[in-house]
Amino acid sequence: MLKGIDRALNAELLNVLMSMGHGDDIVLCDVNHPAASIAKHTVYGKVVHMSGCDLPRAAEAILSLMPLDTFVDAPVFRMKVVDDPEKILPIFTEIGTVADRAEGRKVTMAALDRFAFYAAAKQAYAIVRTSDPGPYGCFIFRKGVI
What we know:
Blueprint: H1 11-19, E1 25-29, H2 35-39, E2 47-50, H3 55-63, E3 76-79, H4 90-103, E4 109-112, H5 114-122, E5 126-130, E6 138-142
Parallel strand pairs: 1-5, 2-5, 3-4
Antiparallel strand pairs: 1-6, 3-6
């Protein structure tokens, strides 16, 4: 064990976070997301698992180490609800609260249609799959600088 590192972060995820550079994206998703098929298109090339974590807990752990990008309007993206794109689910608010707390500021979260989200996810550095049952627990975080 190492001091000061959230125990939810495993060695593989720490390696991914350390390997990412400014402007790289990481996808945090629920169990419903097609993580394996999308992950093969990412820089990392495979799914990183955070088994036993729900989305807010996983986001809290990741954002305890990874700064969000301050050079873009929205460093966080979420998936829109299909057939009700204006709907705001509780998980959207929860992740927003985690991001705001981690950054010590209001963080803007933008929304993407389902297939636009999948296309953006394929361009990410890595996909992190949680044990969260969802639905619509799909988020992209853009890494900033310290």
